[in-house]
Design goal:
Distance between the termini: 47 Å
CATH architecture of the largest domain: 3-Layer(aba) Sandwich
CATH superfamily of the largest domain: Gcn5-related N-acetyltransferase (GNAT)
Largest sheet: 9 strands, mixed
Helix content: 25-40%
Shape: globular
Radius of gyration: 21 Å
């Protein structure tokens, strides 16, 4: 394992299996603006060819109620490697454990995009992924803990972009196809947003967060993030409008052969015009134009029933024609048990403080 700089990382990331925008140097730069230190690690074989890598986020954090600072290490959607190669898996995991110890972190969190199942248990088409099950078992046996703090969505909905447009439409629910046609018939227009419209999209995002009860960050954070990826042609903003009025928007991210629907926002006005359905169809077509292979709709419930808070959003995503991917989720390797378990005990209080501050800031943005 060696450490490289961000320029070198940008050259090799797409050579690695499972490359992801949350492992990109752009994401590292975004997080460096909010207190994280991005580090780039790579593993090479005997021919000096990169076979594994990780963009590692490190942070020194002072949490209220704790009498000391803590060092956290997080690898979002990584490390990147061939997870079917258990010899390589064991080597990488062992060396990042040692890396965390050397950096005096209390724990390291990994969140690799490794499927453990496709579909929903009990429904047609459900099957476990042997590789994911093996990796999960290895983590359990190697002292890793399934994390109480799942930062990213553990499950998601994927659309296969290798299908032609007719097949993509055929896989949608009948109601979804109807709503797409309705939006078109009623005069909803889809177009690219200009950079100077990003603040308008943020305000709409803030309205969405208040309505759907989730916490978001400041306008400055998101506009810097969106610009950072747009500067490198890794992000497009699409908006739906009616008679010149903004009704909905989304930010479509691109990395490798994948598209991601990460940030979506919608107004309470003219919801009967179904702008979000037409907007998603436009996003699918845009991703196909870029010759991408999959479209990740970014998030599905942990429990696939109506009690889950994401159930309504999930049904919308299912209607677009996607299939469920369940991953192994985030796992923690504990370096300092006393500090880790104290941190785990106090983390909910800390997060509640952040949520209250975030909600107040969001209300002020609307």
């Amino acid at each position: 394992m060696i450490e490289i700089n961000e320029t070198e990382w940008a050259k090799i990331i797409n050579q690695l299996p499972g490359s992801h925008f949350l492992q990109s140097q752009e994401w590292g730069k975004v997080k460096s603006d909010v207190g994280w230190n991005p580090l780039y690690l790579v593993w090479k074989n005997n021919e000096e060819i990169p076979v594994a890598g990780a963009m590692v986020l490190e942070r020194i954090l002072k949490i209220p109620f704790l009498p000391f600072q803590i060092s956290l290490i997080y690898i979002p959607k990584g490390p990147l490697l061939d997870w079917t190669n258990m010899e390589l898996v064991q080597k990488v995991l062992q060396e990042i454990q040692e890396f965390a110890q050397n950096r005096k972190a209390i724990f390291i969190k990994i969140d690799p995009d490794v499927p453990v199942a496709i579909g929903i248990e009990g429904e047609d088409g459900y099957c476990e992924d042997f590789c994911g099950v093996s990796v999960r078992n290895h983590l359990q046996k190697s002292g890793w803990l399934f994390s109480n703090d799942q930062i990213q969505f553990r499950n998601t909905v994927i659309i296969d972009l290798t299908l032609d447009k007719e097949d993509l439409l055929a896989r949608m629910k009948q109601k979804t196809r109807y709503n797409i046609r309705l939006a078109e018939k009623k005069g909803v227009i889809i177009r690219d947003a200009n950079r100077n419209e990003y603040p308008d999209l943020y305000r709409l995002y803030a309205q969405t967060a208040l309505r759907d009860q989730f916490t978001i960050r400041s306008q400055d954070y998101y506009i810097k993030l969106w610009n950072k990826f747009a500067d490198n042609n890794l992000c497009d903003a699409l908006i739906a409008e009616y008679e010149g009025k903004l009704l909905a928007g989304l930010f479509l991210f691109y990395f490798g052969l994948k598209a991601y629907y990460v940030y979506g926002m919608s107004s309470d006005e003219h919801r009967n015009l179904m702008p979000t359905y037409l907007l998603q169809w436009a996003a699918i077509q845009r991703a196909k134009e870029k010759k991408l292979e999959t479209y990740d709709l970014w998030g599905a419930p942990n429990q696939f029933n109506e009690t889950d808070s994401m159930w309504g959003v999930f049904r919308f995503k299912q209607g677009i024609g996607g299939y469920v991917i369940q991953t192994i989720g985030a796992w923690d390797y504990v370096v300092s048990k006393p500090q880790y378990f104290l941190y785990q005990e106090l983390l909910p209080r800390f997060l509640n403080i952040l949520r209250r501050k975030g909600k107040k800031a969001t209300q002020n943005s609307v």
